[in-house]
């Protein structure tokens, strides 16, 4: 009896035996799939055995249905039978998938999904891939035609299985032939949405980034897309053109990055993919049109609602649809409340309102994807080429026209947000669109003369007038700006941004991105006219209010404000005068200093700006400058040698070669600026000697100067091979890069008799300067 109970045969000890038999089948199947020997798919098991085990094992008839599917999917069989079988399988899997993407996601992840698991285990995933790809594998002249509905059913079931059963997506991602094949299905509008969603899911887990140039007929594929399809395609492109680790770029040490760059001498896959896209005729132009089109220009209501209907069956977008439907219901309730006596009119009103609300959300979702792709291309190797195209296709004036009505529109009473989130959540499409828009402005303005396209003609004239009044030459880029490509209307995009920036609530997550976008407009060679343009609009007072009066606590926001303040005030005596007028009490000034000192990594760019400005002002004989120098609390504070030495000591102490990142390397450059200005006045030996004395006071002789020596050796390795960084250093400091290099060489001199060499100030007993850099 015991032997019979454990056996897989028909006589095995009742229900418990059946369960064990089912378990044996599952175990054999899984072993076969992993090893390639024995049972590898459910079709190899007899129908009688499957029937017997099905009920007790709770397989819901899936193995039997798969067996029928296998028998009806041979090369010469009638595939219409396959569709009716899939119609039976599909609801069993979609219910599980729906549970996964709704509110019970957490609970769902902790449970098992027997139907999708069973479907995969009995070979369902491999069989559907086989059915889909069959037309490409058969060499007969008359190829088998697969109906659109069958393709949609196959894709839908594959996607549901992917999201519920671990490992399926990765397995599909490893089949490069299948991934490239999926792109060919995108030419059919009826199957586009399902194909796009499955591809996005697969590419998200693919270990190696796909090469876009491997996609058959990519250019003709993209040109066949309508604007809605192109926007959805951008979701897929986002995965193929972004470097995999960009999310935590600032956190990666420069040592690790430099080591990686030495290994990867050629362009990365993402960079190759960016170049491939730019070679597609009309691609950037179409993106610009999509990004700037108004909601009224989108497709008709009927097409839009038809697509929403498809979304409803497509689970990836269920949450978006949920949000849309909630808005629809709220508007319907509002209309019926307002016109309760005229219910017929109320219903008519609701019907006309619904599409507009949904179309706005739809357009926001599209623009998100498009702006992301444009932003990545703007930051890539072909930046200048992209800049030229974006200017030519009037992206900036187009975004300016959308600013009030779509990008920074006022929230309606029924906020369009995703299910389970609130209006201020970073996942909200409204919020994400604003952040993506600000990131695009930042990338567009950063160190590029096209930044003046953010202004309108009157504002450009204002810049010219500021230069004329100050008796300084106009900036070439302002003179050369093509007036036909600038913003139109009463205000340019930069001015609009300043207006919303001032109204932003204290706790808003936008403050960081807004400050970054405005700061990028000022970056590069310092322009007095640009600074005055922003000072006239009250930007300095707004920043000081946020830092001092609202006592901002967010480190990210504080850093962005300090960086912006540094660019706004650098070398500008009027800015320092305004600063002193606003910070007009010792109490306010102390709060400001406390904010600076609370984190030098965040505030060091402002410290650099004050140091550089003070040095320039001290060398000028202007009465106005002398007056501000004597009155300004900030300049008086920095003019004290003890304060400069305190900043220098702390800047060197908070960084080490092993912990240098893109974010904190600026502390090293700020410390170098302080020493270069000292060298100009022949005070370098005095500064080094003072650092030595401060070490002894701290009872740690050598610990600062040894560290500084290592940091400067790294500086040479890092900067002497990079053109861009050296240009940035020159522009931001107005000190030639040659002087930077000379100062570092003098400081690193091995001659212990040199008064300007670091080694002269480290006692031999404490010398520790020859360590190799490692990535530990």
State the distance separating the first and last CA atoms. 64 Å
- The coarse overall form would be elongated
The value of Rg in angstroms is 33 Å
As a percent range, the share of strand residues is under 5%
Q: Helix amount, in percent? A: 55-70%
* Helix and strand composition category: mainly alpha
> How many helices in DSSP terms?
41
Poorly predicted segments: 1-21, 105-110, 246-250, 308-325, 338-354, 412-425
For the report, how would you describe the main beta sheet?
A: none
Give a description of the structure.
This protein has 41 helices and no strands. With 776 residues, it is mostly helical. Helix 5 runs parallel beside helix 9. The two termini are 64 Å apart. Mean pLDDT is 82; it is low at 1-21, 105-110, 246-250, 308-325, 338-354 and 412-425.
Tell me briefly what this model is:
The chain has 776 residues and is an all-alpha fold. One of its GO terms (cellular component) is Cul4A-RING E3 ubiquitin ligase complex.
